[in-house]
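Hello forum,

I keep getting stuck at the same step: I have a sequence, I want structure tokens, and every attempt I make locally crashes halfway through. Rather than fight my setup again tonight, could one of you with a working pipeline run this one for me? It's a single chain of 157 residues.
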Amino acid sequence: MNKTRRLLFQIGAVLILAAIAFCMMVIGRGHTVYFDNKILEYDDETYEPPYKVTVYVGGEQVAKLNAKERGMATTIGQDFEMELKIMEVKGGDETRETYQIKLPRTLDGIVVNLPGYLAGLPEEAWMSEFVPIVTESSEEEEVPGGDEFEMEDLGDF
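Reply #2:
Ran it on my machine without issues. Output:
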């Protein structure tokens, strides 16, 4: 009786942990969304960025982007809502719009090109994976001042 009861508790604990893991997977994972306000070339057309875009996520301003700039926000889950305040030309009127984006579950860093998104282009044109640029340093890098442990010939004593 004691062994059966212990086994049932162990199986129950494993099932509860599996259910929690499944719920966490469904609820979502964290994403970093980067906003590019940069020129986009797609299908032999060029899409120019607005003069200034202010991005709000959850009612909080996360980025104020002039042309050729990038901002970012972090979010949890696949449903992403952002509000954009857009000024097309310097000194022009600002328009406010709210947009919803379904984020892919497989990507952690997502780049959204705002001119392409606002132009209504397909997702593959304006969404891409963020890949950090790794700078390689040469292995034989010269250190200014030479080797600090190098011994000089001090002559005879």
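The two ends are 90 Å apart (CA to CA). If your local run keeps crashing, start a new thread with the error log.
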